[in-house]
Amino acid sequence: MPEKDQAGNGEAEEYASIWQRLERPAKPPRTTLTHEQIAATAVAIADEEGLDAVSMRRLAERLGVATMGLYRYVRGKDDVIELMVDAIYGEEGMPETAPDWRATLRGAAWGLRGLILRHPWLVQVTASSGPLTPNLVARTDRLLASLESLDLDADTRMVVVTTVASFVSGTVGADVGLDRLMRREGVARMDDLRALYASRMMWLLGSGRYPAFENYIRQGVRKDESEWRFELGLECVLDGIAARLGI
Amino acid sequence: MPEKDQAGNGEAEEYASIWQRLERPAKPPRTTLTHEQIAATAVAIADEEGLDAVSMRRLAERLGVATMGLYRYVRGKDDVIELMVDAIYGEEGMPETAPDWRATLRGAAWGLRGLILRHPWLVQVTASSGPLTPNLVARTDRLLASLESLDLDADTRMVVVTTVASFVSGTVGADVGLDRLMRREGVARMDDLRALYASRMMWLLGSGRYPAFENYIRQGVRKDESEWRFELGLECVLDGIAARLGI
DNA sequence: CGTCATCTGTGTACATCGTATCCGGACTTG
DNA sequence: CAAGTCCGGATACGATGTACACAGATGACG
């Protein structure tokens, strides 16, 4: 039981996470800002102008507050990002529990995909924020719960959940990377991007060093159908879970 | 054939990627720097002190060059990052082609895992760099080639490759996030991190809102065996590919 | 009801970042 | 040897995250 040894001392108070700090209900908060406002505004900025546009100054300005005023609510920019992540994970309801595990995981996967597409900056940030924001734990909890009736041990259940989540974030992350590239180059449609990149693609492939890749460029006809690719990959992953774990 | 229409004009020269630019063999480079040096040094800094430590000033200093001197070789920091990514993708040989596709993909997956663990900053950067660096294309090409004898169309082959790669980067990305958290908190062993986080974990779970997650915390006994988790997840993914695609 | 301690929000200041611009000097080329 | 090209350097600017000190308002307490 490693979760109850040397801990619980008051000294841990200093190092408490945001979530811990903002739930202490004492101390009458006669505040003009709320953490929800901060999170929502930061998310709005990131959605509209990208994650780089979320600076403490811009955030404070948009909230009608001096820059340093934010630091009363937040320990630093990392906290802001953690609030943002948690906010969007909580924006839509929890993944609904379907009768069978497969439908539940599938629904959660498509839901996560939508979430990332709506907030593309999530992929830039997912590596730097702690994995313990409340809404993220809640989602994980729901998915774990949907597997509890199966004959799997706790470790395996977690692997199932993280495997699906990893597939989703990786796949959608690639799509998002393309979107960002398009935005940076100022093109709107995928074909325009291809036209713009045609020269360097020709250069790369013209060498004949990458024959299999070249085959894909020439023969692939669903390069733009990201939903099709996502669905095929996802069903593979789900099939694999069912096959290997015998469920 | 979208890769040969309106392109090839000279005006594209201006927008050429770094890779294109540095392959023009003319112009006797009487240079004191090489792109390999720049990439290797930047990688070294990132490996030792993290990606944030890679600034143009530090990089130039370590190369014994004035800051702005770098801009003769590189259009900006984004180029440096692209060079870094390509450098590490090329550091070890290409994934070796095993007799059967499954062994090939498995080897590539474990190889990519090792690569990311050796250069953890890759996960912070993978979203922002273009997907067209030569060594990355080369790797993809090898994997696509290993699937060519199978009865799959080009689109499906690519889905197979990206599905495996997505699983790997997502799963290892989570591990790396934990590592970074440990480094930031200044602890060396996983148990120490757990001790440090025990309080906020207790707080999070004590509410009883996340029973399934709590079950995992209590019953999971392989939380530290990231290789075990990786292997199980990977075999699930491979099983799924075999099952769904009938190979 | 007055006094004081405490918390809130503001302004200033600093180190560091990426990079635009200009310049001197060394090299290749005729 | 002359001329032109291009490397490397120095300076400068705007923007960033945040440490610090201070003004004002609010609550508790006599």
UniProtKB/TrEMBL annotation, chains A, B:
It holds the Pfam family TetR_N. Gene3D superfamilies: Homeodomain-like (1.10.10.60), Tetracycline Repressor, domain 2 (1.10.357.10). Keywords: DNA-binding, Transcription, Transcription regulation. Residues 55-74 bind DNA. Residues 32-92 form the HTH tetR-type domain. It comes from the Bacteria. This is TetR/AcrR family transcriptional regulator. The lineage of its organism: Bacteria, Bacillati, Actinomycetota, Actinomycetes, Streptosporangiales.
